[in-house]
Every structure is written in structure tokens, then in C-alpha cells.
Amino acid sequence: MINCSIIEQLKSDVGNELAVELLKTFINESKKTVEILVNTQDVSEIEISAHSLKSSAYSFGAISLGGTCNSIESLVKVEHTPQQLDLLLKTAEQQSTETFKELEAVIQNI
Question: For residue 102, what are the domain limits?
């Protein structure tokens, strides 16, 4: 779920202490975004939340979550069924839970 080379690059770029703070901020802010993403019925809000989460997920090595958010963002721009969107939103919610656990473990090891 996590691309460790991106985390290693982050640590190299900013140092371990700041990397930990940035990762904690990413987790906390992303949890809020996921909450909005999976609980709103507003398609434009889903698109905005998916875009935001996609960008930050890729930046912090959460490649799977970023990919799912990219799919959500693309899907809402075209005609789709509610079931298609629900499936992707559930996938994003599950991936975010796993991703945040993995990142918290990474933080413990920095």
C-alpha cells in the first residue's frame, strides 16, 4: 500500500523529525477528507475530496489510495451508476484505513 522509497526520499529531503510531523499531518487531514468523501452525496464535493486526497496520497507514498481516488475523480466526470461510485468509495475507505495503519507503523520506526 505504501511506496517506501517515497518515504525514504521524504526523510532524506526534510530529515526524520519533520518527516514524522508531515506524515502525522497527512494522516490526520486525510482522515477528515475520507470522512467527507464517503459520507457526502454531493458529486462535486466527492470530486474535490477525491482530487485532494489523490494528490496528497501520491505525495506521501500511498499509491493504492491515490489510484483509487484518481478513479473516483474520473468516474464522477462521466455518466456512472450509483453502484460504481459506491464500490470505489468503499474501496477508498478500506484502503485509507490500511494505509493509515501502515503509515503509523512507519512513523514508529523512524
Answer: 4-108
Nearest to 34, CA basis, from 16, 52, 15, 19: 52
Amino acid 66 reads: G
- Alpha-helical (H) ranges within 1-110 are 4-14, 16-39, 43-59, 63-75, 82-108
- Model pTM? 0.95
DSSP 42: -
What's the structural domain count of the chain?
1
What's the CATH number where 14 sits? 1.20.120.160
| Nearest Cα to Cα of residue 59 among 109, 99, 110 | 99
Q: What is the spatial distance between Cα 29 and Cα 86, in angstroms, rounded to a whole number? A: 22
For 3-35, how does the pLDDT look when each residue is reduced to its tens digit (9 = 90+)?
A: 999 999 999 999 999 999 999 999 999 999 999
